[in-house]
Amino acid sequence: MLQAKNVERYDFVIVGGGIFGAYAALYLAKKGMRVCILEKEKALLKKASIVNQARLHSGYHYPRSVATALMSDDNKARFTKDHESFINFSFEKYYAIDRFGSFTDSAQFERFCHYINIPCEPVEKHPLFNYNRIEALYRTTEYTFDPILIADYYRRSLEEEPLVDILLNIKIQRVEEDGKSWMIDTASIEGGASQMIHAPQVINATYSGSNAVNQLFGVPKINLMHEISEMVFVTSPQLEKIGLTVMDGQFGSIMPYGLSGLLSLSSVAYTHHKVSYNNLPSFDCQAINTDCKPDFTSNCNYCPARPRSNQHKMIQQIKQYFREDIDLNYFTSLFTIKSKLKANYIDDGRPTEINMLRENPRFYCIFAGKINSIYEIEKTITF
Ligand SMILES: Cc1cc2nc3c(=O)[nH]c(=O)nc-3n(C[C@H](O)[C@H](O)[C@H](O)COP(=O)(O)OP(=O)(O)OC[C@H]3O[C@@H](n4cnc5c(N)ncnc54)[C@H](O)[C@@H]3O)c2cc1C
C-alpha cells in the first residue's frame, strides 16, 4: 500500500489539461465537485488543443462518416454560442473537388451535403481559384475558432475556480486502488515536491497519452494509431478572408486560424511526418531524444529530433488550387502527435468516445475526435 505523506483528497482527478480536461474540470466544479488536474507540461493547453486546424466542424469534412458528420452538427451550435467571441465568422469558406485522385466526386459531395442538410452552393467562376485543377467548387458555411484565445479563456476560468487545483509539470509515479479510491503518487518532473492524491473517480483526458495512462491505472487500452503532425502557418494578403478545403484524398486545407490573422495549412500527404500503428505512440525519433518515451512523450515543439518542416511541399501543393499570383508567406510551424482510433482508418471518422473502463473505483477515458465535442462528457460522467 502506498504510504501517504501529504495526502490530498478530491472527488475527481483529471489526467491531462487540454481542452477536454479543462472543460471537464469546469463542468464538474460547477456541480460542486472538488477536482485536481494533473498535467505533464508546464502550462495547460499546449498540445493538440492549440496545434490543429481550428475548423469548427460542420460535417463537410466527413463524406465517408455520416455518424461523425452528424455529431459535428450536434455540438456546433452550443460550442459557437459558448465561444462566440473567439470564432471567426467573417471569411468565405469553400470546399473543392480535385479533378484528379479524389475519393469523392462532385455529385457524391452534393448528395452528402443535401443528406445531412448543410449548405453547399456550386460556384462556377471565382477569380481566385484555378479551375484547371478543380472539378467543382462550393461555397459553404463553416467557421474557425481561435485556439490561442480559447486556451487563454480556459486557463483564466480555471484559475478563478476555487474547486479546481492544477498540478503542472507532473508525472504519475505509481497508482494503487482499494476498491473505493484511486491512490495516485505524483512527482514534479523537475524533481522536488511529491504529492499523494486520493480520488474515487479518475478521468483520463490525455489524447495521445490515453493508453499510457490506461496502462498505469491497469485498465484496458483503446485501439489507437498516432502520427507526428505539422500545422503550417502562413500569411497571404489575397486569402486573408478565404478558406479552402480540397476533398477527399491526399489533399489539404487552408483557413484562417481563428482571429489571429494567420492561415493554418495542412495536407493529408505532408502534415503527417511519422506514423505509429502501436497503441502507444512510438517513433524512431525517440531513439535520438531518449527523454521522449512511448509512455511519456515530450512536446514535439521543443524537441531537437522533430522532423524537418514540410512547409515548402504544403505551400506548393495548396497553391495549385489558386490563381498563379497568390502569395503564401511562411510564418511558422507547430508540431504535435495526432492520435486516431484505428477503427476510423478507412472511413476517416473522428468520433469522440468516452468510456467508463472501471466501475470501482471509477475510471473514464475520453478520446477526443474534435474540439466542439467537449460537451459529450456531460452524457457519460455520473457522480
Ligand atoms: C493536426 C491536427 C489537426 C486537427 N484539426 C482539428 C480541427 O480543425 N477541428 C477540431 O475540432 N479538431 C481538430 N483536431 C482534433 C483536436 O485537436 C483534438 O481532438 C483535441 O484537441 C483533443 O483535446 P484533448 O484535450 O483531448 O487533447 P490535448 O490538447 O492533446 O490535451 C491532452 C493533455 O494531456 C497531457 N498529458 C498527456 N499525457 C499525460 C500524462 N501522462 N500525465 C499528465 N498529462 C498528460 C498533455 O500534455 C496535454 O496537455 C486536430 C488535431 C490535430 C493533431
Q: What secondary-structure arrangement, pairings included, does this model have?
A:
Layout: E1 7-9, E2 12-15, H1 19-30, E3 35-38, E4 55-56, H2 66-82, E5 87-88, E6 92-98, H3 106-116, E7 120-122, E8 134-140, E9 143-145, H4 147-159, E10 164-167, E11 170-177, E12 182-188, E13 194-199, E14 201-204, H5 210-216, E15 224-235, E16 242-247, E17 252-256, E18 263-267, E19 272-276, H6 311-319, E20 329-341, E21 353-358, E22 362-367, H7 377-380
Parallel strand pairs: 1-13, 2-3, 2-14, 3-10, 6-16, 14-22
Antiparallel strand pairs: 4-9, 5-9, 6-8, 7-8, 11-12, 12-13, 15-18, 15-19, 15-20, 16-17, 17-18, 21-22
Bound molecules: flavin-adenine dinucleotide.
The site of flavin-adenine dinucleotide (FAD) has 37 residues, from helix 1, helix 5, strand 15 and strand 20.
Rg over CA atoms: 21 Å
Bound molecules: flavin-adenine dinucleotide
Mean of all residue-level pLDDT scores: 94
Helices and strands: which structural class?
A: alpha/beta
Shape: globular
- Could you tell me the number of beta strands? 22
How many structural domains can be distinguished in the coordinates? 1
Please report the number of helical segments. Answer: 7
Q: Quote the distance from N terminus to C terminus.
A: 26 Å
Model regions low in confidence, pLDDT < 50 over at least 5 residues = none
